[in-house]
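EI: anyone free to look at a 175-residue chain?
SC: sure, send it
EI:
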Amino acid sequence: MARYVALLHSIVLGAGRRVVMSDLKAMAESLGFRNVRTLVATGNLVFEAEPQLIASVEAQFEAGFAAAFGKHVDIIARDADAWLRLAEGNPFPEGIGSEVIVRVMRQPLEPDALDRLAKYRQGERMAVVDGDLWIDFGLKASETKLLPVLTTKRLGVGTMRNWNTVRGLAEMIRS
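SC: here you go
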C-alpha cells in the first residue's frame, strides 16, 4: 500500500452548501481508498491505495466527487514522499503558520511565474519550490492584492493551503 494526500480546490457546492468531511471520507472509501482521514473541514485527505500514478488518483477522485456531489472540483494529489518534500521545502519556515501559504500545483509553475505576479506584490515574500508557489504574507493576507490573482486561469490548476495545514498533513502521513 502507498500513502497519498488529496486536496480539494473547493468544498463549496453552491449557495449555502458545503461538502461535509464525513461525506467526503465516505466518497473516498467508496472508490476503494483505505484508512481515509481528513484534516480540518477544507477538503484535505490522507489515505492509502495501491501504488499508482498521481494522475490516476486525481482522475478517480474528480470523477467520484462529481458523481457523489454533482459538481466538478479540481483535486490535487501527491504521494507521501512528495508531500513530505513539499513540507520540508518551505522557504519561509519562520513565518506565521496561517500567513504562509503554498499553492500546490498540478503541473509545475513556469519559471516566469514570479515575474508575472510581481506587479501585485506589496512586500510579500514569494518563491517557487519544485513547481509550487510559496508566499509569506507577513501578517497581511487579508489586505493583499495578490490573493485575488492566484487563479487557475493565471497559474494553472492548483489549490492553496496554509503552513499549518501542510504540517498537519505531514504529521498525519508520519503517524
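EI: The first helix runs from residue 21 to 30.
SC: 👍
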